[in-house]
Batch of 4 targets.
Target 1
Amino acid sequence: MSDQLPRLGGLAESEKYERLVERVPGVWWSASGPFAGLHELNVTRVEYFREVFGGFGGKRVLDVGCGGGILAETLAAEGAVVTGIDPSEKSLAEAREHAKRAGLAIDYRRGTAEDLSGAGLEGTFDLVFAVDVLEHVDDLERTIAAIARVLAPGGGLGFLTHNRTIAGFLQLIWEEEYVQHTMPEGFHDFRRFIIPEELTEKLARNGMVLQEMKGVARAGDGSGRRVLTDDLSVTYLGWALRTR
């Protein structure tokens, strides 16, 4: 697989996904490609969010940076009314085709995290998810503000991102991109990784109160299974409530 992966350094974030989908057809749903780990991760994050939000059935949900629809499809299958937004048209095309084959009705729209209103979103959502996307946006402050505007009072935000630490750099960039070549070189930009305190502060400035953060790590049994920990030094997820 490493021979097929394009180098992505120097490209805009949305262009990275366009290039990757173009070079590796079916990459979002491949069992052996660079996004295969997202399917393993999705099991753990969905279990966590299902518990803290009391399930998804009947709730109006927005998946920001939905990519090929990995999370969106799971939410829709559990009864949520799902809208997915992403700037990569090639990723959205793959998402729409896969949802059609799965018999799932998901409203996929092209747009950026910083300008959710530009995608024609109306009203408010009960839940918004921003997983594996906050470290790819061009303006984190605008993204958090945009999420707050479309989230209903009392609604919840579920997130997952990476910490700007030496451990985060070594595991997610050095090891995966330059040693193991399981991810394309240049896929992650370390400068965009987010320290938990930074995220907490930005949430609070936009009327959202952090409820919990948990670290995410690989299980030590070689299965690829993800487990939750108290160590936030690499990848972490959590949730917040909009209070105003």
Target 2
Amino acid sequence: MSKILVVDDDRAIRESTAFALETAGHRVWRAADAEEARAIIARERVDVVVSDIYMPGEDGIELLRSIAARKHPPAVILMTARGSIETATIASKIGAFDYLAKPFDVADLVGRVAAAVAPKETAEAVEVIAPESMIVGAHPTMVAIYKAVTRIASVNVPVLIHGESGTGKELVARAIHIFGARSEGPFVPINCGAIPDTLLESELFGAVRGAYTDARHDRRGALARADGGTVFLDEIGDTSPSFQVKLLRFLQNGIITPLGSEKPLEIDVRVISATHRSIRSLVAEGRFREDLFFRLAGYEIDIPPLRERATDIPLLVDAFRRRIAAELARPSLGGPTTEVLELLQQHNWPGNVRELEQAVRRIIIDCGSLADAGTASRVLGSLSDRKPLSAGTVVEETVDAPLTSLDEAERQHIASVLQATGGNQKKAAFILGIERNTLARKIKKYGIPIGRD
């Protein structure tokens, strides 16, 4: 029989978790906060602490730190309904035994407790400071990704990330870099699908002056710029067979030769790649080298589409709301109503997390808050009406959406952003992604009235 301490400010969760563990034969103590938990640990020999992360006052991470500092600390299993890659990584580095997303299967919890009390090696606690939150989600598939990142970050092997467009493949790649041994080195992303094949080789390997037309000076490629750090090759499945041969050669020997040069360079870089395609299918079709696939896929991570983790939408919306409120200098911007959240959770989100962020921004700019279900429905309707254009597609006029010139469309968008920022050109330029001087010229060009600067 093991001695377990359950810590959660939610009485219902605390009691149900304790009951499940008692039914499994364990002796269980209960605590409503970190202070009460430390008092129990001080007077009782506890084998495992099962604690919530987000609690009033001192949170579960701080409780974990204080437990890890003890001479003979009990194992700690953290629970959360608001998971993030930072909390999962911090928990692992400090010494948490496991990290579970609420709601969890009782059998899974009992199994993890049994594993926690099994004989194991102890590790020294490490102080870790996390960056601002990058990836948010408490769905079990996301928690599995957090654990995968924690495991693989310090292991110097290539990683291949699978996921639809907009799911956050680059964010996962950056997390692996940040939490790995190369975090002090550069992170250099390259979108292989956006660069013509004729230029991709020079973009990756570099070129010397005169190597090709318009090569007027030496150019350091992405691999050289990422030396000592990480290069991220997005949409690797879109590359040509000839480029794949050259990339394979580099992965085999770590040496590059810039175009037009005879001097080889030895490069120390970690390669993380990503694709929205099925590489295995491309290999079967003869469109992707099998030997390159094995070189790239030292470890594989699959990111689920947003429609398969719709329970994370409230967490994502809250994260986007805070970010957009900071951009618009509106700290009092409230959260969404239940009706708006229901609309967002019912949407299919073919563009995944990136599309959700765009929709939240549109709703806030159009109505000034996330409380108007009518605006939310209209924005989601406009997203649903958009259909990807394939080669040869003809765009037809519609009577309910009259076509306008590019200048008029730009004028309307700039005017709406300026209105949302109260006429603050600095914030508007930041949101629009242009220089302030450029914005000023466009305001003058279109004759857009502004309230203040």
Target 3
Amino acid sequence: MQDTKSLKVAFMFSAMGEYSTQIIAFVTILILARLLTPDEIGVYAVAGTASILASELSNFGVVQFLIREKNINENKIRSVLGVAITVSWGLGLSIILSAPYIAVFYDEQAIKIILWILSISFFIVPFFGVPIALWKRKMQFHQVAAMTFTGQMVTSISVVTLVLFGFSYYGLALGAIIGIISRLLITITFKPPGTVWIPRFTLVRSMVKFGFFTSLTNIFRRFTESIPDLVIGKVATMADVGQFSRGFGAILFLNKIIVSAVMPVILPHLAEVKRSGKSVLDAYLRSMNLLLAFTFPVFAVAGAASYPMIIALFGDQWDSAISITSILAIWVMFVSVHSFSASAFIISGAENLMFKSGLIVTIFRLILVLSAAPQGIELIAWAIVVSGVFEFCVLTLMLKQCIGLKINKMVVVLLPNLFVAFICWLTIILIDYVVVFEETNPFKSLAIIVTVLPIVWLLLLRVTKHEAWYLIWGILRKVKALIRVKLVRV
């Protein structure tokens, strides 16, 4: 009972932190979409991608490693910090040195300055890993939520202020660094017991092996997301990069706002399931089922209602992103199925399988996008959909080998969620037939969708007796009980 209670509390704080952070970030994007041109967004997207790829390697799996380890001590923590500093500082220097050449490759000198600014983060980031890992290891997600929320607020305020003062894409980079510094200050102030700041540069073989696989896998994941920006930036215009990035970004935001709330809790949860001798497969399938109850309907709706969503959120100048959003909604439905695959690989000690799957998927998508690039950004979007189907198949086979995933059990999970998503999609098609999205004020269209779809979705969950229904109903009953108590007291 206590374990279940602590898991619910951890999930609640994780959800609060991630949702508030993602919402603030998205509001910032909405503001910037009206302050910056597609060309300016495109320039920063290319430069930011290069920095993000390197930053994934700079983490070197510190958080996941310390969470997974059964026993940790001060010496091991110092050594882990030493490895992270060595890798991250080396990458920071590499970014500084390579920035001029990247700028020449894309024929855009602003990229050099942006990369130099963003390289500062590599000399700060290693000091986050240990405190965050210690907080998560003890399921103290309220501390992590406070840090990420405050950091995002500082970042958003800084970015918008700098852009308003005419710093353009440089303001995006400077604001990001200001936000990172604020996170460091918060971490120093509220550090958990066991936090160390002075590293030991001794080799931790298990850490190096673990960090190698997890970091490269993270790079593959980030790189597969960034391949379109990098390719379009070379073969087309920065404005095209901006349009594609905005459509892709809208889909990724929806995915992150659903998945990111539970993702930080899944790894510690599955690790605890494994340590207690229970079935990791059953826990994985249950997590998948609950997640897909949200992701499948949301992306089915987003794909069918991409016109009012993009125009209302970003404005008329982003009309080319509408078709991109509609196509990529199909892609994200496939990849969302195995959103928790990395956690399953890590707690099973199968980092090599995680690495192999990431490498295979990355190469496949790169080939597809390069082949589709000369035909325009819409065909690139369809190439990503094909790569998503391939990724789904690869991960299914790898998880079958790793945790004994049964195809028939997975199908039992998928079918009800696909049914719910199909009816939600059909509802949007009927609404479009009645109101005609392209002829109606986009805000009015969204208001109708937001009013109708939640009711349809909840009814479908109830009819199918989905586990998510009982979870939601239990939450609603508790909220109702709390309201009654307050009314009685009044």
Target 4
Amino acid sequence: MDIKDRYIVAVDLGTSTIALTVAKIEGSNTQIVYYKETPSEGIRNSGVFNASKVSEPLAEAISQAENALGIKITQAVVGMPKYPVRQESNTGKIEGRGYDTDITADDIAELKRSAQDMYPLENPNMEAIYGAVAQSFSDGENFQIIENEIIGMTSDILEGNFKIFVGKKSSLAKIDTVLKKAGIVTARKYFTADTTAKAVLLDSEMENGVALIDFGGGCVSVSVYHGSIMRHYASIPFGGKNITSDIQIESEGSIGRELAENIKIAFGACMPEKLQNLSEKIIHIKSDNGEAEKKLPVKYLSEIITARCEEILMAILYEIQESGFADRLMSGIVVTGGCAQTANLGNLIYDISGYRVRTGYPKHLFSFEGCEGITDTSAATSLGLVMAAKDDHTINCAVAKDGYVPEMTVPEPEPAKDPETLLQFETVEVPEKQTSGSNKKPEKPKKDRVKWNPIASCGKFFGSLYDSVHQEMEEIENEEA
């Protein structure tokens, strides 16, 4: 391996899956040479809950990547938990620079470090700063200057305003424990709100105003951008796993989590009124223990999914309103993450909020031939981590094994249970609609789109979702104690 060649190994510790990505850096070129998702255990709401359970599938994923690529992985870059994270503000200031001294990128980086290091944490033993994002700068005479504009200016004073993101210190320590148990060390941890956005959003969207919703298995987050700067971040500990649990509950406990997940993936959709002929079908769930066959109408399944998605979206839209940029999101909403491809989710967001919506697939920033799944929304966090680490030339996460001949193909993942072998459809006969005569059903007038009103919409929300959040956090804190 050439001395200039190196590897970036990115680990995305998700609540539902662990994604392992290997990128080979050859000079200025970056190629994704390996990507695989593995079912995860021991993670709650994007944070490590049981380190031993997390490390076992991660160690197996690392071993498979090593065997496929002929490398020895020694370290990895990893994303920080998305929840719980709170947002604070702080300023940094450098004086006595000299009136004829140019402001450089290194000066900005020093100011950012100062703002982070000097921020007074409420409880330093329990909290840690996950990251900081510059909002604006001042040279003592001019204010509200963005980073690209102030670099190159001359000034004796440099002052900056920053958003500081604070999370749990123990969550970061648990990540180190997981990687150590898996046989590697942590190269760098990144606050993924910003890195994922750069892997998904267009420059024009971040400039004009956009909200990125990262809809994961155990956590949903929102990052609001305007003027190419992240202005607001928030997250809630609900996601795709809650939808899976809802399906289990509504089936009266007759199916397990794995089957409920398969049903959600295969037949799940929002907005039952938009399912057309699919809503007439019924899922027949076979039983291995002799119990009677269970029937689950697809329309009812959609109603279950829609109810939970609406509740989650109400929380996210409230946070968008709290950002102060709700009326300045000219590019609307982009939704990414493992649950982003749920059928009709974009239509549901549009109907509730009035914002234009698109699904956020990773941008094609690297070559990735033969890496199945790398273009899915679930890979956005992984590619964001690679983007963040590739320009740091001090990071090299693997070395080539001497005398090793790489396999011709990457090993296939373990075959998942095909939901079609467990489920059957039944088509229900529906009388044809009459199209003539006095019984013809008149067309409904189209409704005008009304932008979401947080004051009118959120009244019932706070009594349900946030109460559940607080109760869950108390249980987790008690278990950790």
